[in-house]
């Protein structure tokens, strides 16, 4: 839908209000996408923290540094 196209937005809203099946399908797809992306984010975050944590710990042991900023 083109930005600023008020009539197209109004029509899309009207369709969603009147077509409950379409609204339910779009809601289910949106929910699945959010769950998938949140899960992916958590996976990447876990790996990132694991790598940073192991690297920082290795540096502390090798260099005898008292502490680094928390990872």
Task: Describe the protein.
By secondary structure, the chain is an all-alpha fold. The chain has one domain. Helices cover 80% and strands 0% of the residues. The longest helix has 44 residues. It is elongated, with a radius of gyration of 24 Å. The mean pLDDT is 81.
Strand content: under 5%
Looking at the structure, what is the overall shape? elongated
Helix residue percentage: over 70%
Q: Describe the biggest sheet?
A: none
User: Separation of termini?
Assistant: 43 Å
State Rg: 24 Å
Low-confidence stretches: none
Mean pLDDT: 81
Structural class estimated from helices and strands: mainly alpha
Order of helices and strands: HH
- What is the number of domains? 1
Could you tell me the number of beta strands?
A: 0
Number of helices: 2
